[in-house]
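User: I'm curious whether this sequence folds into something compact or stays loose and floppy. Could you predict its structure so I can see for myself?
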Amino acid sequence: MWTFINDQLFKMVWLNDLAGWFVETIFKLPTDEKIGGSLQFFIFDTVKIFILLSVLIFCMGIIQSYFPPERTKVLLRGMRGWKGNLLGALIGTVTPFCSCSSIPIFIGFTTAGLPLGVTFSFLISSPMVDIASIIMLMSFFGLKIAVIYVIVGLLLAIIGGTVIDKLGMENQVQEYIRNMEEGSSFKEELTFKKRVSFGVEQVREVAGKVWPYILIGVGIGAGIHNWVPQSFVENILGQNNLLSVTLAVLIGIPIYADIFGVLPIAEALFSKGVPIGTLVAFMMSVTTLSLPSLIMLSKVVKPKLLGTFVIICLIGILIIGFSFNWFFV
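Assistant: Here's the prediction. I'll summarize afterward.
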């Protein structure tokens, strides 16, 4: 029963078959050849991601409506130590934001006087780990990989926030952020109808932001899946290359995308024999250490704190990547 649910609901085998039928019937292209196979991959992954994205972001929007920024600040204010970092990381999981979109929330939390370690736990977990990533990863790589990815992502966020808190780097936040006054806002208890409307609006907002990256990611994935020789990919990012995890991180940093855009690329690389740890390191580096987000963050924090954040994330992602490759040979 679980296999049937996993195949039909999460992996959407029925949709892949339908995409294959569509390509062969409408375009008259055999799906076992490069052009037809690429078109089937593109149609299938694009439709699947948008279906999952819409359902998941709607559900997350409902959940998020119970945790507006004002309520979140009240929950987090005054909380220090690992409990505060854990709560900050968990709240990051209900925010469907890319790294650049998380930074304004980070500024708001900092302005409200939240502990710096807590805000950085949020900043790490928000783009890397969310409820949607669990279902999306299950769809592509199965339940075990999805659950472990979320656990190690949360651990990285908690440890990273704890280290930054212990270093006492509050003075490394830019002065204009520390001197900014917290704005007041009207608090309204939402009805269920308004929460549903909020969920629908979240779908529109998130989908409106990420659709180009999804199409680009699926397009790259389709190209890798059907046109790039497996031997070429394995030589660069395969299990036998000891530098594969490091290379994956370096390749991922210049890319700006979220989990929805990077998963199709990871799926295509996985089909070419790239080990799961290398893919996890690639996905984490794209979502957490993308160059555009680091540029934005540099306007908020001073170089010492920015460098500390990058080093913590780099070390954590590399350890996670190598560990996945070691345990999932």
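Summary: DSSP finds 17 helices and no strands in the chain. The CA atoms of residues 281 and 319 lie 9 Å apart.
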